[in-house]
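Please fill in the sequence for the structure shown.

STRUCTURE ENCODING:
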């Protein structure tokens, strides 16, 4: 499995990413994830919509909580031509509990806990931690990645304005 270093840190400490990095212009990998009800959810099922994939380490951390709530608010303004999905290695039960407690309704949370296939397919699996790096992928209606934002410091929030600008360009 490919390893990449020097791209991200956690509280200033360098981390290694595993997997094959997805770049702008690449076809989005058709990874299968786990829904909150334990069903299999294929990312290809979002074909025909602009897809915002928000990869986070854990919903039970302050920055991931803030980020997912923010994307839920923004998703409510974007309409039904956009799907927003947050992916973490949290168990589906934890994701469901978090969504209920946070009142998040406009973001679908999906789990990569079984095989870390998303982390490997998108190149955001953190070696040794089995968590996902903070990264945003914007995929067009045809399944092509049009925007990637890998957040250098895992404890920092993404640049929401840049993500939203990328989404609006595709509508």
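FILLED IN BY: designer on duty
SEQUENCE:
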């Amino acid at each position: 499995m490919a390893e990449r270093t020097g791209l991200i840190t956690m509280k200033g400490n360098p981390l290694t990413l595993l997997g094959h990095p997805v770049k702008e212009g690449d076809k989005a990998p058709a990874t299968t994830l786990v829904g909150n009800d334990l069903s299999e959810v294929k990312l290809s099922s979002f074909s025909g919509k602009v897809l915002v994939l928000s990869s986070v380490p854990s919903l039970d951390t302050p920055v991931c909580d803030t980020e997912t709530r923010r994307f839920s608010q923004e998703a409510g303004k974007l309409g039904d031509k956009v799907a927003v999905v947050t992916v973490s290695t949290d168990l589906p039960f934890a994701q469901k509990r978090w969504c209920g407690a946070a009142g998040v309704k406009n973001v679908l949370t999906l789990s990569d806990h079984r095989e870390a296939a998303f982390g490997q397919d998108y190149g955001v699996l953190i070696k040794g931690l089995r968590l996902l790096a903070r990264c945003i992928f914007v995929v067009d209606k045809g399944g092509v990645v049009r925007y990637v934002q890998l957040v250098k410091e895992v404890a920092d929030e993404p640049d929401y304005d840049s993500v939203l600008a990328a989404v609006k360009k595709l509508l």
